[in-house]
Amino acid sequence: MKHPRFWILYFSVLVFLLSLTGCQQQPHTKLIVGMELAYPPFEMTDQQGHPTGVSVDLANALGKYLGKEVEIQNTSFDGLIPALKTGKIDLIISSMTATPERAQSIDFSEPYLKTGLCLLVAKNSPIQSITDLDQPGKTVAVKQGTTGHAYATKTLQKAKVLVLDTESSCVLEVVQAKADAFIYDQMSTYLNWKKNVDTTRPILKPFKEESWAAGIRKDNSELLAKVNEFLKDYRAKGGFEALGDKYLKEQKEAFRQMGYPFYF
Description:
single chain, alpha/beta, five-stranded mixed beta sheet, 2 domains, 264 residues, D-Maltodextrin-Binding Protein, domain 2
């Protein structure tokens, strides 16, 4: 007959193991998609506060393709990768550039959009390129956690890099002549110029080309394969063209006239 202390130890270990099982991440019944709803027309909210935009439509189309209900989780951009890695969300669709640095911690789908980094400067600024900007006494605004932030920190040797939390704050620094330029993607730079035509000027020729892709946990190769299948099917059926016409018609025409290839 086993000693009573054996049974005490046995049940203690059993309870401990059961508690660990209960703490494990359970698969989501919904497809939980993380994005920062502060980047129109890609990620935003409508007048009723509901998620809308290019990425929201894309996420819903993916959910339909997979036969799963979609839940959009609004998350700050620099919190998206941590949320993905800890299982709070299933994937990221948030105008995220697929970079080698990010690919060390998460996987990326095939690219679904091509863009590039460019500049928003003051209307009468003599700046014509990123080279003109990297000079002593110049200040460059960047949004925290973006590829513009990463580029400026790594590449600009002489200019001061001003890191801010929001896109609107960066634009305001240029409008108020507190910063000489704001480094951001082409589409957003175009839109920010249209909102501030009296005080700003866009330099839309990209000095660094980029691609956006969906972010997926490294242990979820099955979802990665399905997302890639969806993107191929969605493009073949004209889904991206329809998104461009719905949300970006003016921009598509403007970029065509300026000779820049359009995105999707």
